[in-house]
Design goal:
CATH class: Alpha Beta
Distance between the termini: 46 Å
Shape: globular
Number of strands: 4
Number of helices: 5
Strand content: 15-25%
Strand order of the largest sheet: 2-3-1-4
Order of helices and strands: EHEEHEHHH
CATH architecture: 2-Layer Sandwich
CATH topology: Alpha-Beta Plaits
Largest sheet: 4 strands, antiparallel
Number of domains: 1
């Protein structure tokens, strides 16, 4: 094959440290836009971001240029620095150490995109913890609840 092809759709979820509601409605759009720019600079494509006060969902095509762990490290580190500049009350902001990254088939991409964009509505019916456990079960991931939250 004369060229390398790489299409890896991913649904990424990560939370604020202690799931504190740092991401108020007045800064969310700026945070999502900033995270999107970081991902664009890392050559990730088809980026959709969303979330609520205590967590973020990202849907994108991951780059082949950087390891996934490096992409998440950069997104979380750089967006954390940005968030701290938005208001003096955010100077102690941190993301939780871990994250969830789930593959998304092309046939489900649009449905996941809609899901990411409707986090406000979705979380009127389900908490973040319920949502995350449901996703883990869907992907048949074994987990110990004691180690999921910090």
């Amino acid at each position: 094959m004369p060229q390398s092809l790489h299409i890896l759709n991913a649904h990424i979820i990560f939370a604020t440290k202690g799931r504190r509601p740092w991401l108020t409605t007045n800064i969310r759009e700026r945070v999502w836009a900033y995270q999107s720019r970081i991902l664009q600079n890392l050559e990730c494509n088809s980026i959709t971001t969303g979330g609520i006060a205590d967590h973020v969902h990202v849907l994108c095509n991951l780059t082949k240029k950087f390891a996934t762990t490096k992409v998440l490290e950069i997104v979380k580190k750089d967006s954390s620095k940005f968030i701290k500049t938005l208001d003096s009350t955010l100077r102690d902001f941190h993301w939780q150490d871990g994250y969830g990254l789930f593959s998304v088939s092309p046939s489900h991409f649009d449905a996941v995109k809609k899901y990411v964009l409707d986090q406000e509505g979705h979380h009127r019916k389900e908490t973040f913890q319920e949502e995350y456990f449901r996703i883990l079960k869907k992907y048949e991931v074994a987990y110990d609840e004691r180690y999921l939250w910090d």
